[in-house]
Amino acid sequence: MRLRARTAMSALTLVATALFAPGVGVTASTDAFAVTKLTQAQATAMFSAAGITWSSSGGCSNRNVSTCTSFDGLNQATAQGAVTLKHASGCALNITGGTETGHASGTYSHWNGYKLDYSKNTCINNYVHNAFSYIGLRGDGYPQWQAASGNIYADEGTHWDALYYTCGC
């Protein structure tokens, strides 16, 4: 009987230790879904290293000006998703929209760091159409394709609107 009690107590201690260890279990509930945010400098360094370009109609990067293309507050997974797309497709990739104001709101929005807009070109258009699965029209009528990673690319006519849930790595 004593051996069973000791075994049960050891198992309980092990479970409690695992649950309350730093970065695990109950104490990590607020960190479990934490997202790493990038600065403008961090994001542009990643994009430059990957050969990704960016442009804005206003020639600026101020997050609070809608004609700028900003990366302040961009999710690291979103930036990595762009790099993954660039490497996987082999296409020229130019970002025309980031975290700046002026886009639709919502949890998975540009402002919250989940989306990037890309210039359309034949190479990227063909890659999205052939490598991803067509999943129908978005609520606003734009056609969408979904990558195996779950990321979604919407053809908004003049550009691609990319939603990154993961880096797609």
Structural account:
This protein has 169 residues and is of the alpha+beta class. The protein contains 4 helices and 9 strands. The strands form 2 sheets. Strands 2-4-5-9-8-7-6 form a 7-stranded mixed beta sheet. Helix 2 packs parallel to helix 3. The radius of gyration is 21 Å and the shape is globular. The model is unreliable at 2-31 (pLDDT under 50).
Summarize the structure.
The chain is an alpha+beta fold and 169 residues long.
How is the main sheet built? Answer: 7 strands, mixed
> Can you tell me the residue ranges where pLDDT is under 50 for at least 5 consecutive residues?
2-31
Query: Given the structure, what is the number of helices?
Result: 4
**How would you sum up the global shape?**
globular
In N-to-C order, the SSE pattern is HEHEEHEEHEEEE
Strand order of the largest sheet: 2-4-5-9-8-7-6
Average pLDDT figure: 85
Structural class computed from helices and strand pairing: alpha+beta
Distance between the termini: 52 Å
Radius of gyration of CA atoms, rounded to a whole number: 21 Å
Percentage of helical residues? 25-40%
Portion in beta strands: 15-25%
What topology does this entry show?
Elements: H1 2-20, E1 37-38, H2 40-50, E2 53-54, E3 74-75, H3 76-89, E4 94-97, E5 115-119, H4 122-131, E6 133-137, E7 143-146, E8 152-155, E9 159-163
Parallel strand pairs: 2-4
Antiparallel strand pairs: 1-3, 4-5, 5-9, 6-7, 7-8, 8-9
